[in-house]
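quick one, two chains, predict together pls
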Amino acid sequence: MRVKLKIWRQKDANSKGAFVNYDFDGASPEMSFLEMLDALNTRLIEKGEDPIAFDSDCREGICGACGMYINGYPHGPVKGITTCHLSMRYFKDGQNIVVEPWRSKAFPVIRDLIVDRNSFDKIQVAGGFISTNVGSAPDSHAIPVIKEKSDHSFDSAICIGCGACVAACKNASAMLFVSAKVSQYAQIPQGKIEAKERVEAMIQKMDELGFGNCTNTGACEAQCPKEISVINIARMNREFYVAKIS
Amino acid sequence: MSSFLGSSLTKKIVMAFAGLFLIMFLLVHLGLNLFLLSDDPGPFNKAAHFMASNPVIKIFELVLMGGFLLHILWGVILQIQNWLARPVRYKKMAETQISFFSKYMIYTGGIILIFLIIHFVNFYFVKLGLVEGDHENFYGMAHELFQLPGYVVFYLVALLILGFHLNHAFQSAFQTLGLNHETYTPCIKFVGLAYSIVVPAGYAVIPLIIYFVK
């Protein structure tokens, strides 16, 4: 199959980028979107041109490394999957496809489709952890956890930190990511000890880094490849207010 | 404390509380406006006089003005921050929002603000003595305005926009306050939808009846 690609090219963070058109003939419906880009890059290298830079790692939808804005959607138009799981069969032969990097002040473009997502790491460092003794793994039942709470915590913890929520939000808000990270600890006993400090520190860091404010549009939930719910945002808001008045 | 006051979440909670207060006030104001449908100007003018002179209402008036100012001020500040958070726009952006009207809150809010300023000039500033007019006969003033086709159309358009604003505002305020529940949130969304239709429709009925029937 043949696709007409319009891809954002930018040499480095300080250069001005622009869209470049690529007419790629030779994609197959079984290929993933990233494999199609790999094939395109091979051709570019053979022609002596710079390959298109993009992030990817596990290519199994669990690491959160890949991510690009494809035809108006983070990770492409298919719900609940990452870019690496996006198959070319979802596109029509001859279709125009616009590929852009995540756009956010807090995610500056490093090169082409790669953005610097260190902001997420900084938020995690601010409070996305629990303090515990190092050593061998503790007994799994040493701290009783209610099954329902454990399940909800896991639902939050499956956030892979890819940044699609920021990319999808019209305000480039990171609330879904931060709320998932706050929620995964807020619902289990291990996270209760530092709950107050955690939510305050993570929100303060999020504000400092220049993410936008949540206006409850729900675009983050709709576009999250792990389908993290905005219920996490409401939970984080509660955690924040309780932390401030207690 | 400074981190609390400066936090994005604090601004949002102020927006939510002020917004919910304004939403409740809309219902009170509608109750008052329905007296305009009476042929007797007495009940409406008496109610307007009560609203203008009762000391308890005067305190609420101050709270209401504070609510308006905070809601508008934080709304604009948050929106500017949101625009700055994405300095480079996407070339192609699909419709991904779950709540359709949420995308246009700053614009619908701006139109409502214009309506509010005109409404203040027509009535509230008359009450304060800043604009000339018979502040003992708001009934007559309202009836006069609702005889002007241009004003009626503007009033109805403003109410339609208010409905769009309320449609997202109601449910959004609850989410901001941390009230999201698998069972109750669908009820909140339904009440918000119903409120955003019924209340503006209630206001809209008044000029239509006065213009076409009276």
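Chain A touches chain B through 46 residues (CB under 8 Å).
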